[in-house]
Amino acid sequence: MVFGSCHTPTTERSLERWQALAQSRDYDLMLLMGDQIYEHGLEGDKEEAWFKEYVKRYHQYWTYKPIREVLRRTPTYMTLDDHEIIDDWGSPSPSDGIIQTMNAVAPAVRRRVNGAIRAYHAFQHAHNPGGTNPSSPIYYSFHRVPAAFFVADSRTVRGTEVRNDPTESFAILGKEQFAAMEEWARSREIQQADVIFFIAAVPLALVSLAELERFNQELEEALASAVGTGAALLDAWVAGPVVGNGIGYISGREIVGEAFEWQVVEEDLSTTYNMDDQWISEHNQSDLTHVLDLLLELANELRPRAIFVLSGDSHMGAMHVFGSRKPEHRRNTASYQLISSPISRESPAEELIERYNKGIRQAPVHEMLKSLSEDAIASSVADRTPDEMGIRFPLDHHANQESSNKAQLLGLRATRNFGLIELEHVRDDKRVYRFRVSIRGQVASLAYDNRARLRRSARDPSGHTT
């Protein structure tokens, strides 16, 4: 299975990861996890005009040969993030602090959002289970034995259900979607699954909030310097769709027929993070806790399961391990988050990320990493204090209460990348799997290879000890 996010084609070189996928046959499923287009520079007034503008952008971004080849032959599941709609949709606006939701924005903005979501349904959601129904929710689930998937809509209801009471606040997913996720967790397909995938466009964790703020400041300074001196973070022009006779898409080296050009605006270069968009920000904490509790409960039931969170958005590839210090989560303490971003968009953060990689290499590899292949362990990353680099950090920030959930960053890559997960059932008579996970960059990759034996609890009423 491969996965990726954040697609902005600029040159032939920017399509290198797509070309690698087109030439490969070692995967049978693809997940695209948001920002498959970028909306900057579009103009419209009525809903229909906006719909046509977004349709045009899909044609611009998806018209290239390697992309068409991969999508043509690969079962593909998709979800959206903010750039399929409006930058930072559902989070407080950087200009006035007002949360951008359908209830808060002007009618003109609502017309744009309606047009954008219609285009998303036509080009992306139609690939998904139930997606041909215009009224179907954007979240969905599916399964491919032995794995079960829940693909979250972490954008369209974001910001609409923020409450003072944490138990009633669903700032990202909304109460209806989380109820659907709870029902999915009780479903037959989950009870029979050995591996769980939760897909969220924005990562549950990246680095600590304090470190992300420091990173943001340095990134803003680097971007201002680069843009001010005309440095080539992105090539200035990108070829759009072909409308003349002939093939109708770029061959990889030359444009066939008549094409138009679209200039990348300066806003496209910005990759700094809206702190209020992060799951670990204070007003999103309740939803993060809801999701972590549900996933870790699934990992620690009588039939334990391997848990993977897949995300994009961040314009860097990363691997994390996360876990809980709660007693009920002690048997299966480790779960993984894999981030793949960007697949074609330029990332200007490579030099900044290198210092994190140095810190990661110096940090001890915690024995929590063994917990998918060994018996439950007494200690976990949750017992470590956050370090200065933000590589080990809490996932919850409750006043006067010690953090229950923590994460550890295992590696980062700033180059274009896609993710690959290979799952091998090692023994037919037992629940023993081999996981090979990697974030495959243009010049370097992150990789982890693990044999996992998912043992039943001694309390299993069947009496089996597989």
The residue-averaged pLDDT reads: 76
Q: Which parts are unreliable, with pLDDT below 50 for 5 consecutive residues or more?
A: 226-271, 363-388, 456-466
| Discrete helix count | 9
Main beta sheet strand tally, sense and closure: 8 strands, mixed
CATH class: Alpha Beta
How many structural units, i.e. domains? 1
Q: Give the tally of β-strands.
A: 16
- Reading the helices and strands in chain order gives EHEHHEHEEHHEHEEHEEEHEEEEE
Morphology: globular
Please give the share of residues in helix. 10-25%
User: Which strand order does the major sheet show?
Assistant: 4-5-6-9-11-10-13-12
Q: What percent strand?
A: 15-25%
Decide which structural class fits the backbone: alpha/beta
CATH architectural name = 4-Layer Sandwich
The CATH homologous superfamily name equals Alkaline phosphatase D (PhoD)
How far apart the termini lie comes to 26 Å
CATH domain fold name = Purple Acid Phosphatase, chain A, domain 2
